[in-house]
């Protein structure tokens, strides 16, 4: 008899399993929350490669459960499999953390250690996934079905509690703590590594209380051999057999009826799983595409609080904790009062609809987000804006054709970039610049395709002249603003903004563009050689903007004129909340239901295998993201809309398939099919068993058909 929690039918051992899952999920989601920005900002990869590696890692994490199920069911058992693969898991976290330390080798070493760490983590987390949930279910006696069902909700809430805290804390460790002079990814990965060590210790601490089912043998090999024999036997037979209504019945010559019935049950569920990866293709983009969307939004809540773009993922875990009891205690009972039969498969189909609606909401947000983004020039063209520093209005023409529709006033903030046709990858152009009230001049400059430029126009003793500078138009992936300074003084100047120092040589020279923290800068220090320099008021440097500050003298005082080259993010991050709410509602109906459905429809000796099959749908979902996101080459809002449409189409297919699915009770197999030894000699006895099984299946159809 296993120990029980006081006054309940819950085994005491599940406390250790739930705490273990909380710590393990903290380590996994904490590391994963900062992974995309780690690829972008630390390893220096571009957005598409970062997304690809992120989803390749996510996919591997869900391909490896089949390996864990094999090890658990045919060799070590669930308990030892969890122990040994958790050790691999811890090693992977440590290697990943070491790879994020700048002083450890060069960039190639960081990439090698990071990839090795991710592979070990994938094998660790994936290997234990099918075992932990099934191992928790094994702790309950057969008569405590309701307690077991509630355990899965508690288990899932522990997952999301760990996810909530980790997605809140690790982005703060990344961006709020500086180590080695930059964001502290080593600490952001190190804390999840420590939590995984705690998870391992807690699980081992409960070892004396666990109910352990011994491994059942190489189930997958046995299933494969049985399926292969049935196909081979049916192929060789030239005559049909009316007694064999299912193609698997042709394996009865060699394999037991019980095994064949179990395989039928598993295959029916696996066929039903075929459309499910599309849901996960949408769901897993919270950590990639949705995080990248957040970097181009306004992250400020008032003057004192700013959220990190990778912290928005915590909304999913937070809402899970809120939605699970709301759905269990309010939504499902209310729907039941309306006499609607809320079967598991109907819940899952509804979850798909909610996920599609979430991507519809993400599409609307993205359409507004991109309004502040400067699109790069296509091949054969470049982008050009005019910065008028001359005393008067200017016009710019090319071959007597105006490049800009109106004259440009003195120190006007550039409104937008204009496309400049080149015809070749690089071309020298002669631009005619005219200043009101004075003679014009021709500026010969070399332009390259796909780049963005500012043409600085200013006065010299010899007349009007111009200077071409290349601009940085790509918004920073962490949402910080870019700043540069143009020095119009006759002396060099130094300006310090936060932790960054900018140096400009005299006479219209430009500093390097640098990223600074988003905040108000009412007084930044500056210094020149000949005399002191009063502090400069730069005002608010907002999320995602690119600024050029023109340093000039006005009324014998040095001032900084702000020019906004790339507009600041003007869509607030709160607009992501509806899409997170919708996809979380979808997850409650789809994922929690599917987790319990997989366990309840699995024969006793195949529960880990069917759990692995469920998790395998997540892996294929990430493969879909790689195919669509990396192959389609669509604008982001169009890609979101495509995913939403695909999921709605898949939902229709799944609903049709679900209508023909029959729910079964695997526990009834023990009452129908007795053990093989000495029981199959009497043909009449076998016939009676089969009749009993058929009666059970017909009764099940009448009572539970969707």
UniProtKB/TrEMBL annotation:
This is Solute carrier family 15 member 2. Interacts (via extracellular domain region) with trypsin. It is found in: Apical cell membrane; Cytoplasmic vesicle, Phagosome membrane; Membrane. SUPFAM superfamilies: MFS general substrate transporter. Proton-coupled amino-acid transporter that transports oligopeptides of 2 to 4 amino acids with a preference for dipeptides. Transports neutral and anionic dipeptides with a proton to peptide stoichiometry of 2:1 or 3:1. In kidney, involved in the absorption of circulating di- and tripeptides from the glomerular filtrate. Can also transport beta-lactam antibiotics, such as the aminocephalosporin cefadroxil, and other antiviral and anticancer drugs. Transports the dipeptide-like aminopeptidase inhibitor bestatin. Also able to transport carnosine. GO terms for molecular function: dipeptide transmembrane transporter activity; symporter activity. Pfam families: PTR2. It comes from Kryptolebias marmoratus.
């Amino acid at each position: 008899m296993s120990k029980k929690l006081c006054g309940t039918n819950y085994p005491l051992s599940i406390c250790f399993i739930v705490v273990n899952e909380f710590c393990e999920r903290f380590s996994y989601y904490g590391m994963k929350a900062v992974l995309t920005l780690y690829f972008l900002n630390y390893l220096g990869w571009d957005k598409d490669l970062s997304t690809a590696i992120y989803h390749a890692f996510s996919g591997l994490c869900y391909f490896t459960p089949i390996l864990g199920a094999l090890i658990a069911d045919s060799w070590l058992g669930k308990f030892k499999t969890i122990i040994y693969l958790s050790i691999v898991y811890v090693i992977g976290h440590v290697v990943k953390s070491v790879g994020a330390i700048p002083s450890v080798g060069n960039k190639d070493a960081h990439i090698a250690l990071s990839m090795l760490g991710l592979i070990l983590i994938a094998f660790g987390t994936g290997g234990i996934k099918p075992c932990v949930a099934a191992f928790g279910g094994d702790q309950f006696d057969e008569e405590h079905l309701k307690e077991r069902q509630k355990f899965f909700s508690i288990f899932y809430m522990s997952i999301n509690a760990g996810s909530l805290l980790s997605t809140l804390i690790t982005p703060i460790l990344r961006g709020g703590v500086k180590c080695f002079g930059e964001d502290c990814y080593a600490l952001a990965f190190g804390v999840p590594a420590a939590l995984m060590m705690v998870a391992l210790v807690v699980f081992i601490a409960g070892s004396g209380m666990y109910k352990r089912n011994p491994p059942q043998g190489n189930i997958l090999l046995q299933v494969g051999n049985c399926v292969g024999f049935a196909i081979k036997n049916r192929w060789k037979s030239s005559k049909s057999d009316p007694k064999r209504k299912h193609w698997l019945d042709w394996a009865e010559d060699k394999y037991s009826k019980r095994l064949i019935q179990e395989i039928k049950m598993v295959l029916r569920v696996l066929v039903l799983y075929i459309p499910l990866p599309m849901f996960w293709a949408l769901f897993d983009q919270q950590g990639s595409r949705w995080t990248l969307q957040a970097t181009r939004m306004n992250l400020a809540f008032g003057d004192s609080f700013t959220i990190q773009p990778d912290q928005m993922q915590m909304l999913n875990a937070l809402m899970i904790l809120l939605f699970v009891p709301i759905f269990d205690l309010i939504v499902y009972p209310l729907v039941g009062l309306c006499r609607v039969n809320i079967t598991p498969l109907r819940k899952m189909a509804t979850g798909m609809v909610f996920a599609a609606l979430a991507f519809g909401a993400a599409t609307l947000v993205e359409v507004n987000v991109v309004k502040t983004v400067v699109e790069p020039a296509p091949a054969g063209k470049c982008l050009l804006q005019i910065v008028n520093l001359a005393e008067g209005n200017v016009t710019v023409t090319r071959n007597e054709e105006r490049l800009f529709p109106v004259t440009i006033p003195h120190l006007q903030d550039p409104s937008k970039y204009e496309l400049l046709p080149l015809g070749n990858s690089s071309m020298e152009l002669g631009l005619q610049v005219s200043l009101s009230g004075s003679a014009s001049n021709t500026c010969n400059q070399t332009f390259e395709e796909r780049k963005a430029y500012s043409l600085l126009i200013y006065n010299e003793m010899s007349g009007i002249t111009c200077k071409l500078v290349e601009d940085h138009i790509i918004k920073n992936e962490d949402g910080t603003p870019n700043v540069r300074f143009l020095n119009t003084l006759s002396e060099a100047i130094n300006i310090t903004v936060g932790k960054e120092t900018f140096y400009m040589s005299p006479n219209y020279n430009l500093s390097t563009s640098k990223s600074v923290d988003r905040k108000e800068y009412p007084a930044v220090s500056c210094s020149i050689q000949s005399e002191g320099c009063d502090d400069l008021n730069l005002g608010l440097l907002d999320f995602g903007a690119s600024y050029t500050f023109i340093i000039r003298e006005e009324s014998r005082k040095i001032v900084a004129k702000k020019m906004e080259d790339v507009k600041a993010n003007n869509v607030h991050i709160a607009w992501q909340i509806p899409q997170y709410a919708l996809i979380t509602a979808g997850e409650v109906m789809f994922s929690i239901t599917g987790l319990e459905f997989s366990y309840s429809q699995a024969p006793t000796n195949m529960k880990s295998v069917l759990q692995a099959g469920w998790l395998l749908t997540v892996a294929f979902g990430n493969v879909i993201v790689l195919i669509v996101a990396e192959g389609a080459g669509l604008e982001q809002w169009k890609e979101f809309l495509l995913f939403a449409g695909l999921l709605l189409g898949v939902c229709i297919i799944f609903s049709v398939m679900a209508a023909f699915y029959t729910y079964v009770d695997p526990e009834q197999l023990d009452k129908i099919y007795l053990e093989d030894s000495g029981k199959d000699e009497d043909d009449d006895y076998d016939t009676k068993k089969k009749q009993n099984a058929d009666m059970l299946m017909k009764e099940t159809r009448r009572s539970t058909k969707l």
